[in-house]
Amino acid sequence: MAEAAGSGQRIMRGPMKTSDFDYFLPDALIARYPLARRDASRLLHVDTATSTVTDRLFAQLPDFFRPGDLLVFNDTRVIKARLHGEKATGGKIEALVERVLGEHEALLFMRASKSPKPGAQVRFADAIPARVTGREGDLFRVAFDPARTVLEWLDLYGEIPLPPYLDRGAEADDDARYQTVYANHPGAVAAPTAGLHFDEAMLAVLRGQGVETAFVTLHVGAGTFQPVRAETLAEHVMHTERYAIPEPTVAAVRAAQQRGGRVCAVGTTSLRALESAARDGMLRAGEGETDLFITPGYRFNVVERLLTNFHLPKSTLLMLVSAFGGAELLRRAYAHAVAENYRFFSYGDAMLIERLD
């Protein structure tokens, strides 16, 4: 892919193909379990100013920050969104809550030998009566028994929805480890995985050296795991996710910019929330739905540095980081990570990428 500068923004010559964002990953490099310590991962520093990649340790992250910098975290909390149940006919159902719509209703992906129709009664975990009330594309709208809220039912009988590429069921340790230490607002069905590396000690070190912190909320949906199946990026329809930007975070970003501090998004979800709330160049507080699809050529308005994990081939998140650090440099960074046996995906190692200007 050739890049050209124009009007202060990187643009691409010719249509971008999904195949341009593919790479070979040996199965052994998929991190199927977390390390014993959250901060024990490796860290690959991608420096766009020098077009270099450097092997470091996540424990050395504070070395890359100075007083006045700002880290923005996504404080969503992963819900126990995976359910097993059966239809009134006895047919088995596997379900994943994609979005909680209210106290007693949610949108679910459901897998069954024959899809339940609107009006059908279902029962989850042999304990939760529920009724299918409609369809929205691939999703089923389901009303849960009002004896408890949806979140209460899930907390009692659901399972942590580990990503499909881990190829295993949730285990006891995942309840804590597939959750950031600062998780606050329940609603995600996937963790904002860059934040999994932080423990309270690391946060204390960063704050102690004058690095500011702020929070956004973006409830990560199951669509984050879906590869782009269209031949070109222009044909892809982006999934939507809910986000909220509080006023104190807007104030923190503005203060950092005014004092010359650098704004670092912890994870692609934090970046998407910030950039979605600043599409016209001005960051504003509020809540909304975002279908922002960031590809090479996108002009970033807020985020200057990105801390992220390694992403799936042909995924929208790989396209996002390629936009942030430059497609060619990111290709080299991923090839280096594979050659050096970095650990990939949710429980894997991290990257710190400086924005390509």
Question: What does it look like?
Answer:
- With about 350 residues, the chain is α+β, with helices and mostly antiparallel strands.
- The protein folds into two domains: about 5-80 and about 175-355, QueA-like, CATH 3.40.1780; about 80-160, Thrombin, subunit H (Beta Barrel), CATH 2.40.10.
- Helix content is about 20%, strand content about 30%.
- It has a nine-stranded mixed beta sheet. A six-stranded antiparallel barrel has the order 7-8-9-12-11-10.
- Helix 6 crosses helix 7 (about 325-340).
- Mean pLDDT is about 95; it is low at about 1-15.
Provide a quick synopsis of the model.
With 357 residues, the chain is an alpha+beta fold.
Outline type: globular
Give the helix/strand class. Answer: alpha+beta
The stretches of 5 or more residues where confidence is low (pLDDT under 50) are 1-13
Total number of strands: 19
Largest sheet geometry? 9 strands, mixed
Return the average pLDDT rounded to an integer.
93
- Indicate the radius of gyration in whole angstroms: 21 Å
How many separate domains? 2
CATH second-level architecture of the largest domain: 3-Layer(aba) Sandwich
Trace the largest sheet across and list its strands.
Answer: 4-3-19-18-16-5-14-15-17
Q: Helix and strand string, N-terminal first?
A: EEEEEEEEEEEEHHEHEEHEHEEHHE
Write the CATH fold name of the largest domain. Answer: QueA-like
State the helix count.
Answer: 7
Task: State the CATH class of the largest domain.
Answer: Alpha Beta
Distance between the termini: 17 Å
Helix percent band: 10-25%
Q: Give the strand content.
A: 25-35%
For the record, what is the CATH homologous superfamily label of the largest domain?
QueA-like
